[in-house]
Write a structure and sequence with these properties.
Blueprint lengths: L15 H8 L12 H10 L12 H14 L3 H20 L12 H4 L1
Length: about 110
């Protein structure tokens, strides 16, 4: 009878999605006894977030990173605060900005 060798692979214990969400401030760190399911629940419960890519000056990016690190915030938090300030300033000058959501059409009607 051949006995199978069990190999302990530390890569199986890495949770890249969970680690990325924690590092960007989109999820709280898990306690060791929690399972992968708890990170999935945090991600799906947080449906108000949208991934948004911006291209901007290198100096601005480095300053945002430095501020976030110095003050203990995530980059996302610092950028969101800047967006909120900009929107507030704009609305003070031009009135409230309303967002119109398009009603999703039936794919059979469109294609």
């Amino acid at each position: 009878m051949v006995k199978k060798k069990i190999i302990d692979n530390p890569a199986n214990n890495i949770n890249l999605v969970g680690d990325m969400l924690v590092s960007t401030g989109n999820a709280v760190p898990e306690k060791k006894e929690k399972t992968q399911k708890s990170v999935t629940q945090q991600v799906t419960a947080n449906t108000a977030w949208t991934h948004f890519t911006v291209i901007c000056n290198d100096d601005l990016v480095e300053k945002i990173k430095a501020i976030a690190q110095k003050e203990g915030f995530s980059i996302r938090e610092v950028v969101e605060k800047s967006f909120r300030n900009t929107i507030s300033s704009y609305e003070g000058k031009h009135g409230r900005v309303t967002v119109k959501k398009r009603k999703k059409q039936d794919i059979d009607d469109v294609l």
